[in-house]
Structures are given as C-alpha cells and as structure tokens.
Amino acid sequence: MHVDRNLLGWGVFFIVVGAVPLAVEAGIIGEVAIDRWWSYWPLILVGIGLSLLLSRTPLDGLGGLVLAGTFGLMVGGALAGGLVNVGGIPSGVCGGSDGGTAFAPRSGELGDRARVGLKVDCGSLTVTTASGPAWTVSGTDEDGSGPHLESSPRRLEVRSDDLPGMFLGLTDLAVALPTDANTDLELDVNAGSMTVDLAGASLDDVDLELNAGDAIFDLRGVTTIGSVAVDVNAASVLVHLPAHSMRGAIEVNAGSIDLCAPSGVGLRLDTGDSVLSSHDYAAAGLVQSGSTWETPGYDTAAVQIALRTEARAGSYTLDGERCG
C-alpha cells in the first residue's frame, strides 16, 4: 500500500482530533489533564525543530507528524472540554470570575522614544491611546494589589501577578498609552482576551503574542508604524491594517486570523511554509506567484503592506464579514 505523504499529516490530525473526545468520554484521559489543552502548544516548537533537524533524512516527515498530532491534541481537547468560557478564557485554567477587586490606578509619563511591554496571564488587556505624554494603568485583579509595574521616561513594563496555588488569578488591565511618544510596543496575553485600538499612536516595532484566547488589533488610526509581528497559538485575532506602508509577519498555530485592509492599499502576503492551513486570498482578488499573493498593481501602490502569513492548522480570511 502506498501512503501519500502529503495527506499523512492530515490523517494524523483528524485521527487525534476524533480520538481525544472519545478518550475523555470513556475515562481513559482525565478531564483535568485535557482541560489544559492550550498549554501543549510548546510541542509545536518541538515539531518545527525536528523538521529542521531531520530535513533531507529518511525521517524527514517526523516533525510534520508531531505538528499534526499536537494540533490534533489541542483541537480535540478544545472540543472535549469546551473551547472557552465567559470572557474567552479557557475553562479550568484561571481562577474564579467574580468581577475582581479594583486596584489603585497608576500613571506616569514617557519621553519622545520609549519601549512598552504589557502582559496578562488569565484575564483581559485593553489598550487605548490618549493625547500628550502621560500613560495610565487601571483595572481589577483577585485581591486589588495591582499588577507588577516598572516605569521610566524610556520604559513602561506592566504584567499581571500570579496568585499562589494551582490556578492563575483573573486580571483585567486597561492601559492608555500616550500619543506623544514614539513607541516600541510588546503585548502578551495568555488565556484571555485583548482589545487594542492604537489611534493616533506613533509606532516603530509592534509585537503581539496571544496564547489561547481572542483579540481585536486595530491599527487603522496609527500616525506612523514600522513593522508588526503577530504570534497566535490556539486563538483567533481580528487585525485592522493601517493606511500606511508596513512590513511584518503573522504566524498562527491552531487558530484563525481575519485581516481587514483599507481601500486602495497594496498587499503582498507570503504564505511561506504553511502546514494544514487555508486562506481565501484568491477570492479576495489577490494574484498568486509561488507562495506569494499580491494585490494587482502592488508595485505602484502608494501604500504597500508586505506580510508573511504562515499557518499551522490555521486559517486566514481577508476582508471577510468580521471586517464590516
């Protein structure tokens, strides 16, 4: 019997997706173990490493099978345990959601150039902008103690503090960033949701990472922007692209990306080494050349956005219903 290696990964993926819920139902796999399906994403890195290490060897396909099995485990676990509960937070991962306790707001100022890092483990992150040099941080957490915060005129770091014990505490952060500062921005949310509206911001490099959750990432109103890097694992993200030329990379593992482009913007989207992925670039009017899809007339467009859009068990939708 001849096995088509191009379909082998899909076979492993669907077998694991179907087997996990059945194993949970039969009591072979405990619900506590599978309820943390999102935490298995580091195996994706193992699969990528094996693919690189074993390239051009008889075991060349092993890394791909590890990737397919990992994605199957995560999707099967999500189906077995319920993808998310209220607020987009995976069930069994975070502590109770009783509304939390408000902590004392914090504020300060950034200089002309600054680096901002914001991180939430379990909960939500809302980022907006305000005119002037001042930033503010407010919100709630389990005991009202507030997040860990370090600041100077050139740097702002805010991250939720973990509670002792088995579960992480819920933290909801609301951060307003100044429009006067030219900013490098890093956003990191694990098991939660993110809403980011950067209207009026001047940005150099923007780095967004989301593990298990959902996000809205709105760049339509930015004043300037250099590059964007988005890393999504077991999550979905809606990205409103800016009306400014930009480069960057978006990578999704077991999740989905909705891209919304302003009218008249030239797009160049490179799908790279995507595995078990899908996109609708042809239906959106882009023209294919190898692994690259372009808006007709991209080379002469006044605004050009070039993105690497790779997916592993993920999907991309361009200018779909969510963009409305």
Describe what this molecule looks like in 3D:
The chain has 324 residues and is of the alpha/beta class. The chain has 2 domains: 5-83; 101-323. It is built from 4 helices and 18 strands. The chain has helices at residues 5-25, 31-34, 42-53, 62-81, and strands at 101-102, 106-109, 113-130, 134-141, 148-152, 155-159, 171-178, 182-197, 202-218, 227-240, 246-253, 256-260, 266-270, 278-279, 287-289, 292-294, 304-312, 315-318. The protein has an 18-stranded mixed beta sheet that branches. The protein is globular. The N and C termini lie far apart (49 Å). 42% of the residues are buried. Mean pLDDT is 83; it is low at 82-92 and 163-167.
DSSP strand content: 35-45%
**Low-confidence segments, ≥5 residues, pLDDT <50?**
82-92, 163-167
| Coarse structural class | alpha/beta
Q: First CA to last CA: what distance?
A: 49 Å
Largest sheet: 18 strands, mixed
Primary descriptors:
alpha/beta, 18% helix, globular, 18-stranded mixed beta sheet, 324 residues
